[in-house]
Input
Amino acid sequence: MYNITNILEPITLNEALRMYSDNPKLKIIAGGSDVLIQLNHGKFDDVELLSLRKIKNLNNISLLEDGTISIGAMSSFSNTFRNEIINKYLPVLTEAAVSMGGPQIRNMATIGGNICNGAVSADSAPTLFSYNAFLKLVSIDNIRMVPINDFYDGPGRVKLQPGEILTEILITKENYHKMTGNYIKFSNREAMDIAMLSVAVICNVENGVFNDLRISLGVSAPTPIRCYDAENYAKGKSFSKETIETIGQYAKKSAKARNSWRGSKAYREHLINILSQRAIKEAIKRAGGKC
Amino acid sequence: MIEVTLKINGKMYTRKINPMLRLIDFIRDEIKLKGTKEGCGEGECGACTVIMNGKTVNSCLVLAASANGAEITTIEGLSNGDHLHPIQEAFIEVGAVQCGYCIPGMILSTKALLDENLDATEAQIKEGISGNLCRCTGYTKIVEGVKIAQKKIINSQEGD
Ligand SMILES: Cc1cc2nc3c(=O)[nH]c(=O)nc-3n(C[C@H](O)[C@H](O)[C@H](O)COP(=O)(O)OP(=O)(O)OC[C@H]3O[C@@H](n4cnc5c(N)ncnc54)[C@H](O)[C@@H]3O)c2cc1C
Ligand code: FES
Ligand code: FES
Output
């Protein structure tokens, strides 16, 4: 049986960082949709919670002067997919946010919690990998910017240092400007189910050629991954049927899919091949191209 | 113990609580409003849905302490005296209720949906109640009920 001994609710980030540095054993709670389930399952014994919900501005979404988009870690999934900046500049993140959970979970769950929980199935992860997002990690005496692609450490593990809080997710202009894309979540049920497999494609295409292509996969390895071999192969190539099929094969090779009750390794590999191709074709279509 | 104050269906309640207490326990055990149901206790079924500051949440996944200062609507807060809410009337009329266990949550999800988008299409209705499981009805009558509720609310607004 678990026991919550206390809940701290600081109202400024500085206060939160001070509390966390004084006691790194505090458990951060954002929306609580992972933490409370983990408590129920007996993952912790006595735990003192550090809640981020009262800290102002941690849920802001803004377009900075240099075109960088900043998403506050405490932005809920509902808040994210209803936001005009996200819909206009990061439509693939809108797609990912809408695909997550059901309405109630999307109202509670935060995007920062989704990342920091480290699940391979996290619906925000493949899209943020493909947008080359940076994470702003703040502690009492340090601020570091870490590419999300370097943040995951293994199933359910991320590289947060003691005392560190994720405050913002940042996407620079060159990473979304003139890009199109598509997120496909494949699951047994259409609602309230986590992904058996997920693919996020972001690309820049011009005159029938891939200038840039980024493919990221969820539930295909111990962490979300990028398919660099497939991406490098595609660059500069025209998008013929054969090229896209070869990209699908490369994507499959990047993965280390596993057997699980949700799906077998062989089925997952098939999905990676087929769904990457499907997402690429949709992205090309959205860019006004034909393939 | 932590002191919390919640506004539930328009009334203020202050209690000293254990930090472990969930919002659903506060509503059912402290305030004794038994309309909010617990199904799975894990966010999956939606039976415990309440509206918190205008948005639906699963009250089994919210700590009461984290709801301190919030405004909560439960199923008991929907009717106006003896007059049922149009969504409640519609569900009764069409026979959308069998055992009834999912219905408080289903109606609150419907309310949140129609408050935001009264003209929701069938697809949007299905999406709006996708976090609420019903083991009895097969959903057809529930979706019909929501459509009737839309008409009732639109008519009553035109009558104003
Ligand atoms: C019924 C149900 C359905 C779900 N469906 C989906 C789904 O379809 N797709 C999906 O991806 N997920 C799903 N989830 C999982 C969960 O809702 C998400 O991972 C959610 O985004 C977690 O966010 P949260 O704010 O609730 O996190 P919390 O539970 O509050 O925190 C999660 C973890 O991150 C840490 N943390 C949170 N914020 C920060 C921060 N700012 N800095 C440092 N550490 C932090 C916490 O300490 C904790 O370890 C589902 C969960 C439930 C219960
Ligand atoms: S009891 Fe809360 S979602 Fe099932
Ligand atoms: S009426 Fe019985 S669960 Fe819905």
Notes: Chain B is about 35% helix and 15% strand.
